[in-house]
Amino acid sequence: MRLLPASLQNASSCEGWVEKPGYPKLDGCWIHAPQAGQTLPEFHFEEDHEKTRGEPPPFLYLGSGSDCQVRLTSSFPKRLCRLFKYGKRWFLEALLPNQVRLHGEYLTAGQQEALQDRDLIDLPEGAYEIHIEEHESRYLEEPPFPNRFPARWPLRSSLAEAPEAPEELRRLAWQTDQMRRGSEQDQVRVSDWSSFSQYVKQHYLRHGIDCVTWKACRSQALDAKPPSRAPRALAPWLQELLVSERQLPGLQRELPFASCLRASGVEVQTMSPLSLATPVAPAATRAAPTVPSGLLAPAVTHEHSVPSAVSTEPAAVAEMPTTDEISTAETPEAPKALQMPIREWLESIDDSLFMLQYYEEIVSHFDSLKQIHDIYVRDSQVDPQFFAAAGVSKLGHKRIIEKWFREHCSPG
Fold first, then answer.
1. Which domains does the chain have, with CATH numbers?
2. What is the DSSP letter of 378?
3. pLDDT value at position 148?
4. Which of 2, 101, 168, 260 is the most exposed place for a label (fewest CB within 10 A)?
């Protein structure tokens, strides 16, 4: 593809061409200073260049800015218009209104028009004639060099208009890949991931990159919880269905729809707390056999055993403890860490708050952190079935959860 001033009779010779004009520098681009009596430079872009034919063609900017590939004089705007190729056709896009004309009509800002061979592009000072060489598009049909990203960004080049990534960020990407491979082979510990995450954050903050938390992998930033709705009266048929519902035995919290039932004028019945009644001991009809001194009492009394002495007094029966006595008995108390809410727990185990994406899945299956501990944690080891129930698939997140339970729920 060539851009030649419309009033130019003959193109310039091979001398005087400058390679890779503008920014970012592109292989296969050349520009020639305006000839005598001309205001516009000549431009040539080789599509079939060996270093660029495997990539979609870049955007070529026309203007007076130092980053434009077709750099014009200072009387032009910094960015006037741009050329790009989609498929096998070249397009012209105006960046300013009423500055560029094609086929005798001004283009509005952002308007894109297809170009044909030898079309005239009228600029505020002068005009360009575009020369499109069809044979340079043959690389799109050859099997060795297909268009690798046909639907990735249809109207955007894969060569971004930005400086190349610093070398330390390139090395950081390589180190991250090495850590991932080590995790797949169980060669990386949780402490290694924790240290590496802080190392990555230092690089990000140094380059002005800030992490944004996401919720439930739905591309939504965390927002404050909206205020709860006021209870409202329910329809009569709905009241008949819900009035018979009871909470599960042992759970102290009320049903979710209890406030709406009260607003409807229906009394909500609650379950009475569980209690262990003291049974009445029956009269003993047979006395326990006497055991010689120095011998242990048998665990089970056989029917055919002959007692050496029969006692006429009823055997004393131990009273069963009540519920209050059981609650006040000396039982191992749960660690204080297990008493925190699930959301607070997820926020505390990861400073970046990425663990909050599992909050909705966890609270839909579990009521508290202690319940998770009682069901899935044995000797500070987390059952893998918990990760399947909570939807935790990433190995690094699993290691973070396992590390927390080892530190806060160890038997010692």
1. 2-140 (2.60.200.20), 167-206 (no CATH), 221-271 (no CATH), 336-408 (no CATH)
2. E
3. 45
4. 168
